[in-house]
Amino acid sequence: MRPRNTYLAVAAAASLACPTARAFVGPAKTAAARASDTSLQAEADGTSPAVGRRAFLGSVAASVALGPVLAPPSPANAVLGGAAKGARVASFPGVEGVEPMYELKLSVDALAAGVKNQAQWPLIKKRLDRFFKGAILSEKNFYLGVAFQYMNDIKYDDDAAYVRMDKQARFDAMEQCMGNLERLKNDLGSGADAGTIEADARAAQDALASWFALVPPADVAAVEKLFLDVKKADADRNGVLSDEELAALPLEEQEVW
Predict the structure, then answer these.
(1) d(C-alpha 188, C-alpha 191), whole Å
(2) What pLDDT is stored for residue 62 in this prediction?
(3) CA-to-CA distance for 62 and 56, rounded, in angstroms?
(4) Which residues pair with 155 in a beta bridge?
(5) DSSP letters of 19-68?
(6) Angle between helices 139-152 and 121-132 in degrees, nearest 10
(7) 52 in Cβ contact with 28 (< 8 Å)
(8) Which of 114, 165, 168, 192 lies at 20 to 30 Å from 32 by C-alpha?
(9) Which ranges in the chain belong to alpha helices (H)?
(10) In this structure, what are the phi and psi dihedrals at residue 116, rounded to the nearest 5 degrees?
(11) Helix 121-132 crosses helix 160-189 at what angle (to 10 degrees)?
């Protein structure tokens, strides 16, 4: 059986106004489960065990996060969320490519809520430092790699120009999300005001929402249901599914998880 994922409980402090969101997570550094009471402090310090990844996802960052591979599609003139929506798609990849991106979405949503509490800023800054650390093996490049792989696995039934525009919109959405997260990190370290900090977080959130707007709604709904079902199946609330707990999931969700 492939390595199984583990789900994370809310890692942000109780003051975060997004009860279903989870703190920033990235590619696995250990197979240990994340405890349900993981704190934002522990996450920022790097003392919390990281989430397990399926083998094929765990290798994405190293295999596709190189500069030439992640070069913008050409021509680079598509408008984010614009004409790309008109590209005809014959088939989309499976939801296993959406699941890690949904984790990122929950994380960014939690971050956008967390920056409203200035007491959390040092912890958020510390966690963002870790998110961008590690060159091609950084958490940033892990998610860029997953998004790039998802984009390349889409099968199109349209003219090449529309295909390029569609890929450009997906590429731009992730680039803008990561750019705004990095701007947030830098502004947190430079003493920027609350308005600037919150605007950075909202911009990252909006860019990622643009990426999800190009994913079939049914696939997003399936991943949302997966997370809810996994939480219900984790009877002992230890953050990892045993064989018995995994068996409680529908067969199609067992394959994704």
Answers:
(1) 6
(2) 37
(3) 11
(4) 91
(5) TT------S-S--PPPPTT--HHHHHHT-SPPPP--HHHHTHHHHH-STT
(6) 60
(7) yes
(8) 114
(9) 40-45, 55-58, 60-64, 99-114, 121-132, 139-152, 160-189, 194-212, 217-233, 243-246, 251-256
(10) -70, -15
(11) 130
Rounded (5°) CA angle 133-176-54: 55
Which tokens in the block code for residue 52?
A: 């397990």
Q: Residue 25: exposed, middle, or buried by beta-carbon count in 10 A (0-12, 13-18, 19+)?
A: buried
| Residue 49: pLDDT over 80 | no
Angle, alpha carbons 234-44-57 (nearest 5°) = 55
Report the alpha-carbon distance of residue 34 to residue 161 in Å, rounded: 45
Decide: 40 and 142 in contact? Cβ < 8 Å.
no
Q: What is the dihedral of CA 53, 59, 60, 62, to 10 degrees?
A: 130
What is the rounded end-to-end Cα distance, in angstroms, of the chain? 11
Task: Report d(CA 20, CA 32) in Å as an integer.
Answer: 22
Predicted TM-score (pTM) of the model is: 0.70
pLDDT in tens, 7-17: 332 223 222 33
Mean pLDDT, all residues of the chain: 74
Given a cut of 70, is residue 218 above it in pLDDT?
yes
Tokens of 252: 């199609």
230 in Cβ contact with 257 (< 8 Å): yes
Sequence-separated contacts (24+) of 189-192 with Cβ below 8 Å: 189/125
For residues 97 and 142, the answer to whether their CB atoms sit within 8 Å is no
Rounded to an integer, what distance in angstroms lies between the CA atom of residue 97 and that of residue 232? 22
